[in-house]
């Protein structure tokens, strides 16, 4: 899928342009949240990634057919904190095309390897940087077309200031053709998931 001349991997909720067009053609029905980037970001975090403690938006920017949504959770003092900023684009050329999660804007936890759009194999060499103390990194690969994760890794001890991390995620089977979501997260201090980052890979 493309937006503003860039090519993106359709991570969730639609696996193809046909699915997005069908929703637009058939009407919203009980799934009006597809038209709301903030609702789509929260559902991605909860329903697809399974991060149930992340239950609110913390920031929102929309420009033309793109949106950036901060999702997060409350700290013990009641203040909200951001776990990740998700990037969404409209899936299709129509002004009211539904929203699709395509990646994240990373900060204290980054996922720079493999590069966006890279071909995913049976093993994924992953890496990035992390800022924090006594962090424990988890990784998972998922596809919107599959009910279970393709592979899960736990755990890599990390910490410091923009310290590099790297590991290999072994998949139980080769992914089906389509987009693959790779997610890394850390937590355990005040919440199970405190920071996460995602990238979009592809499978042929």
What is the compact description of this entry?
Helix content is 11%, strand content 48%. By secondary structure, the chain is mainly β. Strand 1 and strand 2 form a beta hairpin.
- How many strands, which pairing sense, and closed or not: the largest β-sheet? 4 strands, antiparallel
> In angstroms, what is the radius of gyration?
16 Å
Could you tell me the strand content as a percent range? over 45%
Q: What class would the helix/strand composition place it in?
A: mainly beta
> Could you tell me the mean pLDDT?
95
Total DSSP E strands: 10
Tally of individual domains = 2
Distance between the termini: 15 Å
Q: Encode the helix/strand succession as letters.
A: EEHHEEEEEEEE
Approximate shape:
globular
Relevant terms:
four-stranded antiparallel β-sheet; 10 strands; 2 domains; single chain; mainly beta; globular; Immunoglobulin-like; 204 residues; 48% strand
């Amino acid at each position: 899928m493309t937006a503003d001349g860039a090519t993106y991997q359709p991570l969730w909720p639609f696996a193809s342009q046909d699915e997005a067009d069908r929703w637009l053609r058939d009407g919203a029905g009980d799934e009006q949240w597809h038209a709301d980037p903030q609702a789509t970001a929260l559902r991605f975090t909860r329903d697809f990634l399974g991060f149930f403690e992340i239950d609110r938006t913390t920031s929102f920017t929309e420009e033309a057919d793109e949106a950036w949504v901060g999702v997060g959770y409350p700290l013990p003092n009641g203040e909200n904190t951001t776990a990740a900023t998700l990037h969404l684009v409209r899936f299709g050329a129509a002004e009211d095309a539904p929203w699709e999660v395509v990646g994240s804007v990373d900060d204290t936890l980054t996922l720079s390897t493999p590069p966006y759009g890279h071909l995913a194999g049976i093993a994924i060499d992953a890496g990035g940087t992390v800022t924090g103390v006594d962090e424990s990194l988890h990784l998972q690969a998922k596809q919107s077309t599959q009910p279970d994760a393709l592979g899960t890794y736990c755990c890599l001890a990390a910490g410091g200031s923009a310290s590099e991390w790297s590991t290999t995620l072994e998949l139980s089977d080769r992914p089906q053709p389509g987009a693959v979501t790779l997610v890394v997260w850390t937590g355990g201090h005040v919440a199970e998931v405190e920071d996460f980052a995602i990238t979009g890979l592809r499978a042929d």
